[in-house]
Amino acid sequence: MTEFWLISAPGEKTCQQTWDKLMTATTRTNNLSTNNKFNIPDLKVGTLDVLVGLSDELAKLDAFVESVVKKVAQYMADVLEDSRDKVQENLLANGVDLVTYVTRFQWDMAKYPIKQSLKNISEIISKQVSQIDNDLKARASAYNNLKGNLQNLERKNAGSLLTRSLADIVKKDDFVLDSEYLITLLVVVPKTNYTDWQRTYETLAEMVVPRSTNLLFEDQDSGLFTVTLFRKAIDDFRHKARENKFTVRDFQYNEEEMKADKEEMTRLSTDKKKQFGPLVRWLKVNFSEAFIAWVHIKALRVFVESVLRYGLPVNFQAMLLQPNKKNMKKLREVLYDLYKHLDSSAAAIIDQSAMDIPGLNLSQQEYYPYVYYKIDCNLLDFK
User: Fold this and answer.
1) Where are the alpha helices (DSSP H) in 252-364?
2) What is the pLDDT of residues 103-141, one digit of tens each?
């Protein structure tokens, strides 16, 4: 299970005591969760007003960064196409899998200097992830156009004989070319009507060249036949052919056009292969960057909410719980019993519509007497 509960509770005499109490309640007498300390450095607190405003801004930023992380992950899956089973191994944070990164989280001092104010740190993250989002849109658009154009050409070369391109089927020798009077037509005949075709094609119009039909190609349902006739008989032949369930394809043999189509297909296919490697590398790097930023946002939110709820001086223990799936309800009850004394108004899980206290982040539809955020490392939505 890849869902984590990031919680915090105020330090007792020491933060270690808070940790020990949680461990006793959730792991030593039962198997409710696997727990890790979640290390948040000494960040600059600032004023209460700033913290209240920042709480709401961080909630929005959290949702935005999560959406970008998911978009990058999902696009990685789209780009890998038939190798989707390899997606997970490409979704890493700092070179390790997401569960390892979250459970061993260390604040990145170089990217997000703690001497900066909380607001500045959140703005650094916002700018960084907005840039990733914009770059993703541009790269995805370019690659999708290329992929779409290639798929359109591939579709033209596949499918039914009634619609597909015939360029890779016909040869110059199949046609009477450069004749003022004669023309070769291509006709699609259902397999069940082959006998009718052979029996009637010479009589569908006047001036059809006898014994001029040849079968060039077959698919599951039909065959592609040539027939040569005088140009002036084309309309009559088309009309009579249609009445007999034979379909004359609109096709003129043009070597240059067919060569250009093949070259375009080769060019697009080569371009796609060229772009694939760098695009996957970009997605790997920027998924890692966005995911790391997201977990730092969670850390910022825990810090801000903990100061708002538990007061100053800063004294709380942040803890990361990986719930045992079978015991999630029981874990909630144990945490409630452990921390209900922190907030008398949280006598039950309160629907956020019932109360909306600025700065206490009740926009999540759920409220607990302890600070709580969810981190879900399952970021792909395979349909």
Assistant:
1) 255-310, 328-339
2) 999 999 999 999 999 999 999 999 999 999 999 999 999
0.90 exceeded by the pTM?
no
Amino acid at 314: V
Place of tokens 């709580």: 372
- 101 to 91, 235, 284, 319: CA distances (angstroms): 11, 72, 15, 14
The pLDDT, as a whole number, for residue 381 is 64
Tokens of 72: 């990058």
- What pLDDT shows up at residue 344? 63
Q: What is the pLDDT of residues 24-33, one digit of tens each?
A: 999 877 889 9
Structure token pair of residue 175: 């046609």
What is the Cα–Cα distance from 64 to 145, expressed in whole angstroms? 26
Measured in whole angstroms, the distance separating CA 191 from the mean position of its chain's CA atoms is: 43
The answer to whether 6 touches 320, Cβ cutoff 8 Å, is: yes
- Eight-class DSSP state of 208: B
What element of type H or E holds 146? helix 118-156
Burial readout 178-200 (b: 16 or more C-beta within 10 A, e: otherwise): eeeebbbbbbbbeeebeeebeee
Using CB atoms within 10 Å of the CB of residue 290, give its burial: 0 to 12 exposed, 13 to 18 middle, 19+ buried. Answer: buried
Strands 214-218 and 222-230, sheet pairing: antiparallel
Per-residue pLDDT, averaged over 47-76, amounts to 95
Q: Token digits for 301?
A: 């939110």
- Among 17-21, 290-294, 345-349, the least confident range: 345-349
> What's the rounded Cα separation, in Å, for the pair 288 and 69?
9
Short-list 56, 148, 99, 112, CA closest to 364:
56
Is residue 316 within 8 Å of 15, Cβ to Cβ?
yes
